[in-house]
Structures
1.
Amino acid sequence: MNILVTGGAGYIGSHTCVAILQAGHMVIVADNLFNSKAETIDEIKKITGKDVVFHKADMTDEAAVDEIFRSHKLDGVIHFAGFKAVGESVEKPLNYYYNNLVSTMVLAKACLRHGVKRFVFSSSATVYGDNAIPYVETMKLQPTTNPYGETKAMSERILTDIAKANPDFFVSLLRYFNPVGAHESGLIGESPNGIPNNLMPYVTQVAKGKLKKLRVFGNDYPTVDGTGVRDYIHVMDLAEGHVVAVENLTEGVHVYNLGTGQGTSVLQLVKAFEEANNIEIPYEIVGRRPGDLPEYYADAGKAKLELDWTAKHDIFDMCRDAWRFEKNYQE
Ligand code: NAD
Ligand code: UFG
């Protein structure tokens, strides 16, 4: 298959490009490099020994997107391109609604116009909101509390309605839990701009000495040790999930959780990182971060049953691979 990967120079997209190429498909990347670098495309080529076509293009630009669809005979689209910082989405809601929704609609429109059937969308566990755990795909989604989450719920709705009206448009909505880690080569990984918002990149920067100590946001939650619990998933497992999702995509709308089904607390992750890498992570307990939920993780049963997909890496692999990338990474 020829797969268009939007946002393919970014964190999850680049790892997915590797997995798609290794599964024997062709990859066309479209990215405006807003939050990534063109060199990542070279790293993908280096890891796989395969060629990648790269278009520097904005997915909200209808003419540019149409040009890409005209120049390749595409079999499917995996749509990663978008903005993803929850806090920033509260400060700049219009940017988030515009970029995340318009890109989704422009791409769906191009698929219909050019007869491209398969559309895989990057959604998020955030669409479940404050729900019972584990999160199951059949749950009624809760209103989310930030524009970023809303863009994911709205995009899911838009794609679902388009698929209902167009039987030749097949949609897979992938709800990611907490992607962490890096490709085992250490050549690609997560490199956020500025001070990281997310736990694992913060921990790796503390390990590197770039940041002094981790701030643990609250230790009075009703969880195993009082700190927040999440379902961390190795980014290469997540990438494999996309390969099976696009390969097996059939008529209709299919929703899958991509998680391990396992919860890990902040302090458990810190301990795993210390053990996996033999590095001490200094930390202090501070107040809760507004908007954080105490605990959630996936019911990962549906992806196993229907796609025969399960996450293979454990939390130690995630910590080891995240650190290998950070250690090598030059800004
Ligand atoms: P990322 O920022 O590393 O990658 C996104 C890529 O999209 C970047 O390379 C950026 O330059 C590009 N991009 C953004 N807007 C674009 C546009 N209009 N046109 C072309 N390119 C554009 O982020 P990521 O962590 O790899 O996330 C990928 C997707 O997965 C996003 O949609 C994100 O919302 C979703 N997601 C991420 C997480 C997570 O924790 N990382 C969790 C759930 C869902
Ligand atoms: N945490 C800390 N200190 C930090 C950063 C995080 O203690 O410096 C804690 C948080 O309080 C939380 C846990 O670590 O308990 C994980 O926090 P992250 O910021 O890494 O991840 P979130 O679960 O808050 O959110 C992430 C993405 C969202 C996405 C969601 C999907 O940022 O975009 O996963 O599950 F929607």
2.
Amino acid sequence: MPQKQAEGLVIKNYSGFYYVQDKMDNIYECKVRGKVKEKLLSGDRVMFTPLGMRQGILEKVMPRENQLNRPRVANVTRVLVVMACDQPKPDLGLLDRLLFLAEFNRITPYIILNKCDLDIHEHAMQILNYYPGTYKVIKTSARQNIGIDMLGDAISGEIAVFAGPSGVGKSHMLQRLIGQADIRTGEVSAKIGRGKHTTRHVELYPLPQGGWIVDTPGFSVLDMPALKREDLPQYFPDFTAQASDCKFSNCLHYREKECGVKTAVGEHIILSSRYQNYISMLQEVMERERCY
Ligand code: GDP
Ligand code: ZN
């Protein structure tokens, strides 16, 4: 009798084996069937044939929703863009760029304001005042273990990756999240042989609320991807409502007259740094277009 196949998620690749988590949260150490030619990534959804309770044969890779290259991981559904309330003060330019890159990759971004145990820098105030209209904003303190449950809930059922500058507390947050996870998956961690580090592969950590966190920060490459200038505005969802007042339907909100977005900036409906950051990205896109 042929064994029945099951669905699973690749959470780790370690010395020639792929570790596949099934719907019941069991983890199988899988060899890949020879006919599978695709290069597998953590985050890949697969079909596999269980051989007993711990081993299996990986039979097939399902089509990917998306794929990040740094870190190399498939099917990410959440980017947690981390800024600190202070130390370092939030970099609004980087924030807007990371939000754009998330949108461009069709991944839902959340903004995490960590170090909420410190006094709030003016830039962090601006984040709290403006961005919740468009994005979910969560305040945390990895140091004092505040908001980590909320962060876990936000990841529930999702594959999430951290992004943001160094020093904002991403490693500490990861430790907090995984620390909780270890209570539940302690046995599993032992089984998949964590600690014996050889080659560095991206790993997805299963969390207690369900969902997975990628064990390394994302989007370390911040170049603008190849896109046409007229495709940029759609990745700024907070501009959409205002753009209905633009004279031209393909308005770039740049040199045009009668522009709803520029009017909204003048009326402080759109945050002016946000608009300025959009213009810098637009100029970069236009520079690159000239190179084609
Ligand atoms: P990463 O570079 O983003 O991974 O940041 P780290 O996790 O390495 O943290 C950078 C520094 O910020 C360390 O000195 C941490 O102790 C400190 N830190 C992390 N989280 C918090 C927090 O919630 N509050 C405060 N005050 N400091 C924090
Ligand atoms: Zn416009």
3.
Amino acid sequence: MDTIWVLAEASGGKVASISLELLTRARELAGTVEAVVGGEGEPVAAELGAHGATTVHATGDLEGRLAGPAVASAIAAAVAGGAAPGAILFGTTYDGRDVAGRLSAKLGVPVITNIVELEQSDATLVGTEPVFGGTVNVSTRFSGPGTGLYLVRPKSFTAEQSGGAPAAVSALAVPELGATGAARVVDRYAEEATGPKLDEAGVVVSGGRGLGDAEKYSMIEDLARLLGGAAGASRAIVDAGWVPYSHQVGQTGKVVKPDVYVACGISGATQHMVGMKGSKHIIAINKDTEAPIFGIADLGVVGDVHKVLPKLIEALQARG
Ligand code: FAD
């Protein structure tokens, strides 16, 4: 494939890790990789270039407008004006989905979603997507000509620098948006967080229904903090209201790939496992020897979390 565009999301001059992952994979698949940014290009040109983008097509300040309508319209106009990337890659994020969906309608092409692997075949990209809770993979490709749209799940690829020079910044004009441009972002709320982010942490300690009640989740937070990691959760305890959705690991939560994943009182439903089975080392604590999580664990502790976790926390605290 000649050219791939990647929607690069950035905040405060820092490019999101999903965008760097996509650039890394794109440069293995195409001769030219270019980024598209809803915002100013200069603050992110060096980081995008270092991950393989030669050009960043930037809309400039969106002045509080939502990224979705503005960026989708801008890309559609560029394509109508002759830009012809073979593929555009988006991360499965709020803005990625918003831009891809709107662009799909504007270009009249479908979006291939939920991708975990991308490969080149006969000058087109083939996406691999898990279905039925991750038990079956399907491969999908575009059979017609034109630009293909691909939505890729975070952590499908590992971001690596290419050592490239800063990307050249090129202006991407945003056409008149009409009513779709009326919405304005009036406030932003950043959840207070100490320690690493769940999807970027080297260690993730997650709790499930086996904890028994919401108060016991503090053991998960304590252990995560002592290990310098982040605290995660199964959907069961998110649905029960014990912890916010932002902690959820799995098919409908976050995908994590830490060096160490500790599953505490989690059975190992396929929908949970698709979100963490890529972890380098998996430790499971469960009182049921038949729990499916033991099937993918490198170290299985058959025991009661109310006995094992306090001991573990005590031992780590004693080490100082
Ligand atoms: P349970 O399955 O109830 O398991 C609790 C475990 O704790 C058991 O194995 C038990 O043996 C053990 N236990 C009990 N007491 C103790 C103790 N004292 N000490 C040690 N072990 C103990 N789930 C997700 O996690 N993430 C998702 O993103 C997700 N997406 C979904 C999407 C769809 C469309 C659907 C249908 C489901 C989804 N689920 C998801 C839900 C999933 O199917 C399971 O229901 C959920 O993962 C179960 O959570 P759990 O392991 O905490 O609870």
